[in-house]
């Protein structure tokens, strides 16, 4: 089974806190707008978006917005392009 | 009798919970934005949308938005394109 | 006397409940967004809309929006294109 | 003295209730969105609008919106294009 | 000293009640959206607007919106194009 | 140190009340929308805006909107184009 | 590890108060809309934005909006283009 997001949506698997520490990014609970790291599982049909974000990319996204789903018992998020803040490299 | 959605609307028959377990997707009741699986019965007149979603596709949609109708005693939804999150393959 | 809707408006005569049962569509009172069947009496001046909806079509529309008027003592609705959900064939 | 509406505005003289009965349109007080018949006195400078509505046309407009003015002691309305629902012929 | 409005703004000197009576327009206090007559002192830099409204025109404008300023002790208004309802001729 | 506003922003130094009296403009405290005179220090990168407003121009701006900053102990404002009402000449 | 902002986002490291005094800009706490200086760490994928703002630029941004993140224990902000008020030179 494969999930193909529509238009400018992105399917993301949130990365757990241990991994976050390793990447050196720490997202404070008290931040006025919360964000989180995630792994891109699938990118929507929008071609321009596909040129910017690839499957396997690590992304930083805002926690406000997006839809939570569970795939084979694992939490995932379906986000809109505007929820994606940045791609994390290295 | 056939229902032909206008513009970017999609007619969907929601899939019941048993089928959802089989596909490995589980949609938690507590998710902040609820979603649900459905079977596409008819796609609107918008050509670009028709190139992305076909009759018979399984889709994931957000529960907020859309209009409930009963066709021959079965629950259906008429959704806008923006309510469709992803196409589920396999 | 003839009413010619402007731009993307559509003049519709709502269809009564008996006819709804015959077409196999039943619109529950408890649905979060109510819809209703109607007969298209006149389509607005918008050419693109005229290629999608014709006089005599049966349409499904959302009850939110539109303006109620009585023509020769019969209830009618003037709807915007965005209030029309689908065309019902057969 | 002549009033020339700007852009997509339309100057309308509302038609009194007696005339409304004659045209067969009755606008219920209880309708959720109120409308009213009127006579077009002048059409705005927008060319596309001028091809759709002429001086002397009878129009149906929504009562929400528009600005009331009195010209030589008679009530008039200056409406935006979006307040005009339909042209009434015959 | 000269004031040149920017973009689609218009500088207007409101006309006092006596003049209003002469032009035959009376603007009721109880109108749901208030309007007022004024004399155009300067038109903004927008070329399309300059083709529609000239210095010296009498205009009808809605009282909601606009910024009050005093020039050499006289009340003036700086209005946006959307605040101008009509040009009054003759 | 030089501040270069981005896009359609304008850096303005508000002019004090004495200067305002000299120019003949008086901005009443009771006006429903407050405005103020200022001197343009720098215009944003937007080319169309640069053709309308120059460094050294005196402008009238609405007090709602804009961001206050102090440069070398003097109050300044960074305004958006839509906050600028007019250029004052002479 | 490198953070590459998406679209029109900008990654900024806020500059501390000492540096602010040196540049001659002082941002009052009581200002109705708060702003702050920062150092641009990375500019989003939008080409037009890249022609206006470079890595290493000092920028003035509004404090409302943006997402706080910590990178290697240092506070950073991911801002939208509309949050950037100006580039500070020299």
UniProtKB/TrEMBL annotation, chains A, B, C, D, E, F, G:
Belongs to the GroES chaperonin family. GO terms for molecular function: ATP binding; metal ion binding; protein folding chaperone; protein-folding chaperone binding; unfolded protein binding. PANTHER family: 10 KDA HEAT SHOCK PROTEIN, 20 KDA CHAPERONIN, CHLOROPLASTIC. The keyword Zinc does not apply. It holds the Pfam family Cpn10. Keywords: Chaperone, Cytoplasm. One of its GO terms (cellular component) is cytoplasm. PROSITE patterns: CHAPERONINS_CPN10 (PS00681). It comes from Acididesulfobacillus acetoxydans. Its main location: cytoplasm. Heptamer of 7 subunits arranged in a ring. Interacts with the chaperonin GroEL. Gene3D superfamilies: GroES chaperonin (2.30.33.40). The lineage of its organism: Bacteria, Bacillati, Bacillota, Clostridia, Eubacteriales. Together with the chaperonin GroEL, plays an essential role in assisting protein folding. The GroEL-GroES system forms a nano-cage that allows encapsulation of the non-native substrate proteins and provides a physical environment optimized to promote and accelerate protein folding. GroES binds to the apical surface of the GroEL ring, thereby capping the opening of the GroEL channel. This is Co-chaperonin GroES. It is found in: Cytoplasm.
